[in-house]
Structure formats: C-alpha cells, structure tokens
Design goal:
By secondary structure, this protein is mainly α. The chain has helices spanning 6-25, 36-53, 57-65, 71-95, 101-126, 130-154. The chain has one domain (6-150). It has six helices and no strands. The longest helix has 26 residues, at 101-126. The mean pLDDT is 86.
Length: 155
C-alpha cells in the first residue's frame, strides 16, 4: 500500500480547486461536457479524492459548471451524483460495520436540518439568475479552498 502525506495533498487539492475556480470565474469554459473519457477521468479523480479525503465533489462540480449547458442541468446532475455517491458510501460503511445505532441517531436528528438546507437551496436557486448562480458556485468553491488551505497551513 502506498501512502501520501495528508498535508501536502490537502495543499495541492486546495490550490488546484482555487486556481480552477479563479480561471473559470475569469471566463474560461468547456465548449461541451467531456465525452466518456473525460467523464470517466472526472469520476476517477472524484472517487480518489472521496476515498482519500472525503472530498470528492469539486471535480464533478467543476466539470458541470464549466460546460455551457444550463445551470439547472448541472445542478440536477450534481444532485444525482451526490445521491449515488452517498448511497454507495453508506452501503460500503454499513458493510464495513461503521453504521451504528449512535450514528443512526445522529442522522435522524440532523436529517430535518439537512432537508431545511435543501429547501433553502432550492428556493435560492429558483430566485437566482443562471449566470449569477454559476458565479456564486465558483465563489463558494474558492472560499472552501481558501478555508482548506488556511486550515492546512495553520495546523
């Protein structure tokens, strides 16, 4: 088994996500969604990041929001993506004995909070223009990468 030190990898991920968000905010975009090879590559990178750092979303988010398709298509695709990865992750955790009664209790308590967040997000999405929504997503990714970088540097 090969192991990579956590700190350099967190720095690398933070820098790559931040740089990509900045480049996209400056106007760069894909002409179309990537084909099977590009989508598979995005999935592999996302899976590797999810397995290593529980942070597999940024590659998929960047792929869907760098393409010219309407943001509603990207948003719907990401909802399906996260639903599938969460179900697979939960199934894997259950098989590995990581799903316990205390964990299920936490899930039961936090699930309504999560639903409220989804509801607020849906409301925000419906009231936001597509170009503004894309910009907000890029700002959020940039902010999360800055937080990751700051946390990594200060720890």
């Amino acid at each position: 088994m090969t192991a990579v030190a956590e700190r350099p990898m967190r720095l690398l991920i933070g820098i790559v996500v931040l740089a990509t968000a900045i480049i996209m905010a400056c106007g760069w975009h894909l002409e179309d969604l990537p084909g099977p090879v590009g989508a598979t590559t995005t999935g592999v990178v996302s899976g590797a990041l999810n397995g290593a750092f529980a942070m597999g979303g940024p590659p998929a988010i960047l792929m869907y929001f760098s393409a010219p398709q309407h943001v509603a298509v990207g948003r719907a695709s990401l909802i399906a993506f996260f639903l599938c990865t969460d179900l697979l992750g939960t199934g894997s955790a259950a098989v590995g004995g990581l799903v316990t009664w205390p964990l299920l209790t936490q899930v039961a308590v936090l699930f309504p909070v999560s639903l409220a967040g989804v509801g607020l997000g849906a409301l925000w999405f419906r009231r936001t223009r597509a170009t503004d929504f894309r910009r907000y997503v890029l700002w959020l990714l940039a902010a999360l990468s800055c937080l990751t970088l700051t946390q990594t540097i200060l720890s």
